[in-house]
Amino acid sequence: MTDLSFMPVRKGPPTLSDAVDRITLNTVAHEMRDPFDIGDTLSMLAQTGEAVTVYPPGRDLVMARIASIDPERRTLILDLAEDSLLDEGRACIVASLGGNAKIQFEVDANWTIVPGEGYLVELPLPVACLVLNRRAEQRLDTPIGVNYSASFTVLGKVLEMPLYDFSRGGVGLRATPEQAYELYVGKKLEGVDLELGNSLAIKADLEVRLLRPFRTFLLGQQVQVGCRISNITMQMRQGLDRAVSTAQKRK
Question: Residue of 131, 165, 185, 214 with fewest CB within 10 Å of its CB?
């Protein structure tokens, strides 16, 4: 049974007062192209029900929310706040990431309503997003031949998973479908032992931010588990800084 105590509280339907302005050309923003980062960010917007502002061709803005993300089909379902027929063509979509942070992307779609769902439209996931004041850190791939892993206990079972990437603010784990069965977006993992190379080990609390299945030639079906490190102490930050610096030098 899913433990709902860790699930994020979803916001109510958006209104025009929730509208977010587009990122202008004269602001200091950067481009996000990593599919994992894009999927992670849009999945969290879907989980929280954050308002999304759509600037469609030929008319004023329309408010919406992201209903769901399908990483395998590379699509997202947008839940429009009103029963609108939008003109086919390229539209700009903007959402707040908290504070002054924003994410913005463009989609070129026919805006066809999902059959039987008068307010839902299916759109392709963006290949790139513009991010303003993004607080996430750059992810680094874990070096080959060096031990980067996470071990923790879930429902009395000790799980150990290899890391495929990490940053100063989070880690990406690789799990089997059996290991990922008890995990869900929003679940908190306490007292996780992180091995970051041969000489650095820290204990941290993690929050699951993304689950994405994939298949490899050697291992078969696997699940990517994207986690954010919670309650980072100064000592932990210093350890992560050392691990990031070491990995950057290896590159």
Answer: 214
In a shared domain, residues 87 and 128: yes
Q: Is the pTM of this model over 0.70?
A: no
Return the pLDDT at 8.
46
Pair 73, 187 in one domain: no
Which DSSP category does 16 fall into?
A: G
Q: What is the distance between the alpha carbons of residues 143 and 121, in angstroms, rounded to a whole number?
A: 41
Query: Can you give the residue range of the structural domain that contains 106?
Result: 7-132
Q: How far is CA 150 from CA 128, 159, 173, 196, in A?
A: 30, 8, 8, 9
Taking CA atoms, 97 is separated from 36, 44, 45, 66, 131, in Å, by: 17, 9, 8, 13, 9
Domain boundary among 113, 132, 151: 132
Q: Which residues contact 125 (CB under 8 A, 6 or more apart)?
A: 35, 38, 39, 42, 69, 71, 74, 75, 76
Structure tokens given for 79 = 């839940």
Q: Is 233 exposed, middle or buried (0-12, 13-18, 19+ CB in 10 A)?
A: exposed
What is the identity of the amino acid at 4?
A: L
Tens digit of each residue's pLDDT (9 = 90 or more) over 190-202: 999 999 887 788 8
